[in-house]
What does this fold into?
Amino acid sequence: AEQRFLPHGYLTYGAMRALAAWERGEGAFSARSTQWSEMELYRQIALFGSGHDERSDAYQLGYNLLIQYRFNRYRLGDSLIESGLRTLFEAQLDRGVWEKRDPIFRDGNHGEAHCFSFELLSCLLRDLRGEWSLLVPWEEHLSRAVEWAARNAVRRYGTPLWRSAHLVEATTPQSWATAEVYSFLQLYSSYLSWRIQTIVREDFRNEPAQAPNPRAFDDLYQPEVPRPQDGPVLLGDLMRDRLLEPLRIPGDSPSYSLVRSTNPRGKARSGILFGPPGTGKTTYVRKVAEYLGWPLVMLDPSDFAEQGLPLIATVATRVFSELLELEDTVILFDEMEPLMHSRADAAGSFEQKFLTTSLLPKLQELVDRATCMFFVATNHLETVDPAAQRPGRFDFRLQIMPPSYDEKLRMARDCLGPDLFAAAEVELRRQPYRTNIRLASRNEMLSLCDDIKRRPEHMEDILSQFRAELMDDERFRDDAGSW
It folds into this structure.
């Protein structure tokens, strides 16, 4: 009589993935499969929890856990996923694989076909890529699998190969088993890279990565950057076209990467942002990270001086050795004038000149590494050492000024409302006030609009008494920066 085999999570998982990719996974089939898988997952967790039970099967548990993660994740929540992973890895044998239980099917005259541990491990690492933190408690168990692969490699032609060992008499390597082990090792290498970077970022002030946001700059009132040939352009548009979109990886959904891009050393990835306080230099760096969907790491002189001035160079060596481990991360060095002070300044101390000398090669190494994008933000470009500003050290330097005059009018329209703005626009456009308003910071402009809203009948007096702080500061008038 034909032997019957019970439904198996391995086959169900593969079928549901294939149908979902084919966009035919919806409907009654998907609902019934998900429901069966949910009950089987609960059953396996209970069987393992009750002690040694011949009906417990780690592969049934693992693949049904993956089905629930992919197709039923948000209804069941984190607790079931964590419980399923704990049960699965606690069932792992000390040698790094799981015990074979029920066969999937009989393979002709060759014997019963069983699951291969590395196929399950590859699926776990691949499906949980967005939430690898779930696997952190089980790193020792992942390393056991690596040790199994090292012990059981068969050397042929100088290359390690593997066999699944589900057939006792089969002693030769198998292409599919070798492919699964290599797939696991590649995914595990990516996991370790992610883990190292996570640990490094925890040493600094950081903001985690989110999904890329192509509208990241839309909520800003932006300055214009003059361009000799093409005319002025909004800063966000310039950054998008020249800095961010060249890092886009081809595909249906937006994805940006330096390490996966072609010719990463040919991409713009480092810049000096300078300008008066309060113009949003830090905000623009945040928006760059938001646009790309990358994490953001922020440092200032206090991160280098945490062990005192004599040890700044030693701390800097440690800090940059950690930064060099990061990939696809935006790094901001904020208010770094004390550590990059011009060595030509006679008033500068020996310590400052030594720090500048020791810091510049480390910045160059970060440039040469070409795995991260980084910015130096400063309020006082004139005090920064010329060697730090030379071409090759940074790809560009940009002066961050207050929002443009047209953006100020848009800000006034948003703050005052259409009726009051219609009355105020004539005054705002009058020549005596244009320059003053053009140099106003965002906060100064908001304060001006609040005054007009409170006392609209005194609008002319309010405008005549208003004076932007930058009206008295000549440092930021001439140099708009360069790309």
